[in-house]
């Protein structure tokens, strides 16, 4: 958005607006609710109360609890995609990209596991969440297909292998989180499988 500054000069506003901050507070409150009472226990009213606003104010931004959850999933997976892309861009070798990408994914499950779990469990019944989650998987698979190609796999094979491995990664971390098992152990196992599948040294 351009705002006027001293006559004809303009500059781009970079600070978040009041609406941006309110929406962020709602999503933060929703994540806190997921951590404390879970998706089934939270309502629009409890999210609004956690955020310190009225239900009417929340409805100005989101039409339902599922819309809040879909936006929360979108925010979380966007952060994951960005971090994995940054790892890939910075990694000098395919093996490093694999190790660091899985480590980043494990960290996201550690920090935002309830959101990730909710995405997996509600995707079959909430189309907006399914779209956000699947788009994240596709984007991550595209990034990792590039890693697989750099490791020596042919283009078509690289895409197929990366897609299968990304879905496997989702399932392994989900099961570890639900079972309260070690995410570090899951990451170590996944790293070995990825490296073996791409023909890279462990």
TrEMBL record:
GO molecular function, one term: DNA-binding transcription factor activity
Domain HTH tetR-type intervals: 20-80
Lineage: superkingdom: Bacteria
Keywords for this protein: DNA-binding
Pfam families reported for this sequence: EthR_C, TetR_N
PROSITE patterns to which the protein is assigned, alphabetical: HTH_TETR_2
DNA bind region: 43-62
Name this protein carries in UniProt: TetR family transcriptional regulator
Classification of source organism: Bacteria, Bacillati, Actinomycetota, Actinomycetes, Pseudonocardiales
